[in-house]
Amino acid sequence: MNKKTVAGICGICPGGCGVNVLLVDGVVEKITPIKGHPIGVVCVRGTHSKEIIYSRDRLKHPLLRVGKKGEGSFKQITWDEAIEHIVQAFQKTKDKYGAQAVMSYFGRGSFESNILDIFGTPDPTSQGVTGFLYPFGSPNGTGVSSICAVSYNLLAPLPTIGTPMHALYPDFENSNLIVIWGTNPTTDSPPDKVKKILSAKKQGAKVIVIDQMRSAMAKLADEWIGIRSGTDGALALSLLHVIINEGRYDKDFVREWTKGFEELRAYVQHFPPEQVEKITRVPSYTIVRLARSISGTQGASLLMYTGLEYSNCGVQSIRAALSLWAITGNLDTPGGLVFRPRSPTKFPRIRLEPPQGVKPIGADKYPYFCEVLKSAQFMEAPRAILDGDPYPVRALLVFGASLLTSLPNPDLWKECFKKLDFMVVYDRFMTADAMYADIILPATTNYENVGYHRHPDGYCQLRQRIIEPIEETRSGYTFLATLAKGLGYGDLFPSTDEERLRFTFGSGPVSLEKLKQNPEGIPFDAGRREYQKYEKGLLRRDGEKGFNTPSRKVELLSSVLEKYGYDGLPVYIEPKEGPLGNPELYKKYPLVFNSGARLQSAFRSQHLNIPGLLKIQPKPQVLIHPTDAMQRGINNGDKVWVESPRGRVSFWAKVTEDVMTGQVEVNVGGGSPIHPVEWREANTNYLTDYENRDPISGFPVYKALLCDVKKQE
Ligand SMILES: Nc1nc2c(c(=O)[nH]1)N[C@H]1C(S)=C(S)[C@@H](COP(=O)(O)OP(=O)(O)OC[C@H]3O[C@@H](n4cnc5c(=O)[nH]c(N)nc54)[C@H](O)[C@@H]3O)O[C@H]1N2
Ligand SMILES: Nc1nc2c(c(=O)[nH]1)N[C@H]1C(S)=C(S)[C@@H](COP(=O)(O)OP(=O)(O)OC[C@H]3O[C@@H](n4cnc5c(=O)[nH]c(N)nc54)[C@H](O)[C@@H]3O)O[C@H]1N2
Ligand code: SF4
Ligand SMILES: [Mo]
After folding, report:
1. Any bridge partners for residue 663, and if so which?
2. Helix, strand, or coil here: 636?
3. Can you give the pLDDT at residue 181?
4. Distance between CA atoms of 622 and 641, rounded to whole angstroms?
5. Whole-number mean pLDDT of the chain?
6. Is ligand 1 within 6 A of the CB of residue 214?
7. What is the pLDDT of residue 349?
8. What pLDDT digit, counting tens, does each position of 620-647 carry?
9. How far is Cα 112 from Cα 187, in angstroms, rounded to an integer?
């Protein structure tokens, strides 16, 4: 038996956790965290790396469809044949309908630095892989950003504070109060924030979680504030009401550095705590106490992520929370929400520009989204695919995504897949989408790839190849570089893995040689941390003082959003499908529906075929409060229907006080052909609504709908 341990990066998700890999006879046996690595932990999915890499379900060869779409008959072909096929199909589509008729969708399986840094757009960098088809002539690079994270990361903060959220960090170390609002960092990838939060708590910081359920993080916190899904905007405005009316805001900051304070002051008068209690279900005394606590604490930090995105006013709710942080003097101050310094260490990027003259799909309905992301809003693709409106889309590349499990109304997307002239899916596993593809290509895990990971705190690690690619699998970079070559623009990109790494590290202070000599990673200069950078001209490219917004101030009243025809204030819109928004429907569906709180053992649709992980939670669940369960004669573990106005799906009841009365939390991820039958038949998105969206982002309202739960006979 030949045993050896090598330092690497976990290759299951893009979390970038630095790991020691124990290889036994060349096979990945076990991974453990590297001591001293900035992430320093390994999650349960990483622990099961061996099972995932060597799963018998892995796609291993390129496949060509021979049966009808959706039927699942394919024959093995070579990579060369597959690439030739795609090139011809894309070219044919371009000749007939124009390049814009070819679209790409990059999902959660594409977020690797290797791919993002080359095929993403450089500025801002968090918008996903939008650029691959630009040189081909199509502006329709799109992906999971159409439904995830960019409301929080870009669409809300850019018009308000001028910077993407990833350019800020909660200054936990110096915080006296940590508010965790609509996020559960215990399942973050990487899961590195919990340790920092708990260590601040140990130092005396108070930790408050605002969440529709008692999440794992809420259980670790000092206080859980339960809230009705989709009403956080009202809560934030009520907190502002108390703070402004009691004069508890930072008056100098407001005078010097905000725009629209008087308009905001007038607007929040509509949100007194007693009234907002009826909307949010947060007691009015809790609202008052929380408002005084945030405004009265020196150093209050804020951690958010996707929990506020999926309502009828997701972007505005996040803006309301940011406004609250700004006027209480917790922006860029010790212990608050702080702007990252600009790093003097630069890594070269390729600048891909969208083609001129043709607007991406969705630009008519979501102009701000399409402008910021330089991409299409994929939620509008069905119009283009099915009706040619505003122009036809006829070919689709799906890279590391599972649309049929992740988007509302799977049947609509199946219809789209049937209508397309050509579809290619590149994935590690057979997906529901792939059943409709003309070509399926097998992807590596990142244990089989070279690459790198950059930590924003200033740490870089080379991803060495731990094992050779399984069978005929290929890395995402190799696939895209080869396809680009076939399409006639391969010269824009490094063509081999080695060239690819040379491109990024060839000239910089972090050299490839140094990285190779230090496989556990090396620190780099990420800039000097300091506070109140807006006072020092450190936030704007022009070196002027202030924030990177048109007025150089924090725009409580956003001129950018007004320009696009939206409300300039962080307005609250009641969930359209909710107890107050639609009382008639509420009689028939008396439970507030929330979906998709992360499971430790799965990652959206992934890993539900991995026996070791499946053991942790074998069946898809709906979490329901004992009171609601009792009224329905439901016991823990019963098989139930969750019914929404769109249909019904089978789940198992988990009766728990971790959810509030009158609300349920439904697991997400089921619906893939490789899942065991319980999960395969539990596609939550048959219950969600394709039409019901946030008007600014176009994101579906996944988390503030109505349903009922019934015991199955
Ligand atoms: N109702 C409801 N729906 C939701 C959500 C919700 O909360 N509620 N959440 C939404 C969110 S936040 C998201 S991000 C989307 C998720 O949407 P998707 O992007 O579809 O995410 P996954 O289901 O993780 O699918 C990723 C696919 O990529 C593959 N993959 C993984 N790694 C690689 C790789 O390195 N290369 C390649 N080629 N493939 C790889 C996996 O096998 C998997 O098939 O779902 C959304 N849908
Ligand atoms: N293990 C694991 N890790 C994952 C994923 C996974 O599927 N599994 N998915 C990955 C993906 S795609 C993403 S985008 C990130 C997301 O990371 P997060 O945004 O942190 O997602 P969650 O862990 O679901 O935490 C969101 C929290 O918001 C709460 N919430 C939902 N609706 C509301 C609301 O209306 N108001 C408030 N206040 N709270 C609400 C949920 O109950 C949940 O506790 O996680 C990533 N990490
Ligand atoms: S978060 Fe992702 S990268 Fe980190 S250990 Fe888990 S699966 Fe691996
Ligand atoms: Mo996501």
Report:
1. 592
2. coil
3. 98
4. 9
5. 96
6. no
7. 84
8. 999 999 999 999 999 999 999 999 999 9
9. 18
Q: What residue's CA is closest to ligand 1, atom 23?
A: 605
What is the 3-class SS of 459-480, one letter each residue? EEEEECCCCCCCCCCECHHHHH
Q: Nearest bound ligand to CA 40?
A: 3
| CATH T-level fold of 79-146+377-523 | Rossmann fold (3.40.50)
Dump pLDDT digits (tens) for 248-275. Answer: 999 999 999 999 999 999 999 999 999 9
Short-list 308, 348, 340, 346, CA closest to 324? 308
Residue 281 CA to ligand 4 center (angstroms) comes to 27
Give the binding-site residues of ligand 2, using a 6 Å CB cut-off: 108, 148-149, 181-184, 187-189, 210-213, 215, 227, 229-230, 232, 305-308, 311, 594, 597-600, 602-604, 703-704
Ligand 3 mean position to 458 CA, how many Å?
Answer: 19
Residues facing residue 10 across a β-bridge: none
What's the CATH number of domain 172-335+532-563, 3.90.850.10, 3.40.228.10, 3.40.50.2000, 2.102.10.10? 3.40.228.10
Ligand that comes closest to the CA of residue 48: 3
Longest pairwise C-alpha distance within the chain: 74
Domain chopping of the chain, boundaries: 1-55, 79-146+377-523, 172-335+532-563, 583-711
Q: Which amino acid is present at 565?
A: G
Of ligand 2's listed atoms, the one at least distance from the Cα of 600 is 1
Distance 125 CA to ligand 2 centre (A): 21
The identity of residue 485, as a single letter, is: K
Percent of the chain, pLDDT > 90?
94
Q: Which residues contact 262 (CB under 8 A, 6 or more apart)?
A: none
Ligand 1 probe mutation, 114, 146, 427, most atoms within 8 A of CB: 427
Q: Is 320 helix (H, G, I), strand (E, B) or coil?
A: helix
Give the tens place of pLDDT for each residue, 574-585. 999 999 999 999
Please report how many Cα atoms fall inside a 13 Å half-sphere around the Cα of residue 626, on the Cβ side: 3
Predicted local distance difference test score (pLDDT) of residue 513: 93
Residue among 13, 184, 215, 688 whose CB has most ligand 2 atoms within 8 A, to mutate: 184
pLDDT surpassing 70 at residue 440: yes
Among the four given CATH numbers 1.10.510.10, 2.40.40.20, 2.60.40.420, 3.40.50.12780, the one describing domain 583-711:
2.40.40.20
Query: At 296, is the pLDDT very low, low, confident or very high (cuts 50, 70, 90)?
Result: very high
- Cα atoms in the 13 Å half-sphere on the side-chain side of 610: 24
Q: Does 498 have pLDDT greater than 90?
A: no
Ligand closest to 578 (CA) is 2
